[in-house]
Write a structure and sequence with these properties.
It contains no helices and eight strands. It is mostly beta strands.
């Protein structure tokens, strides 16, 4: 028989600092490191994804040694920020054929409570955990902004 779960029991993050909350995590291996890309929640916050992106990485042969280089991308870098979309949702990163790294993400307003409302945006960096610069919105083949669905999360 197993012991009942205590109402005051808590789970702790096994590898990141205890005050770091990364929902929508997307792990990727680039070179000899594993990177964790994700949204960034506020400790004891009352909303979702209000903080700028801060990515973590560790050597693939030592997953107990996670580090961060600080803020990688700020919501205010995206022109949608001025429209009241200040929350960064569910990012993912891919390496392009040119060797650069592309950060895809959606922005939201309403304190993050009404979810994503497009278009999707993209930023670029020379390193997976480097400083990303806003590149633009993702577009369909006909040039219109892609905002129908979130294809990653």
């Amino acid at each position: 028989m197993t012991a009942p779960i205590r109402p005051d029991a808590v789970a702790v993050n096994p590898f990141l600092p205890l005050d770091v909350y990364i929902p929508d995590g997307e792990p990727h291996v680039f070179g000899d490191r594993v990177y964790l890309f994700g949204s960034h929640d506020d400790e004891n916050g009352d909303t979702y994804c209000p903080l700028d992106y801060e990515f973590y990485s560790a050597p693939v042969d030592d997953l107990s040694n996670w580090t961060s280089r600080g803020i990688n991308y700020r919501a205010a870098q995206d022109p949608q920020y001025a429209l009241g979309r200040t929350y960064l949702y569910a990012p993912d990163v891919v390496q392009g054929r040119d060797g650069r790294f592309y950060l895809y993400y959606g922005m939201a307003g309403e304190k993050g409570r009404k979810g994503y409302w497009g278009p999707l945006s993209v930023a670029v960096s020379d390193e997976p955990d480097g400083r990303y610069e806003y590149l633009g919105v993702v577009r369909n083949a006909d040039g219109t902004p892609f905002s129908e669905y979130v294809l990653f999360d």
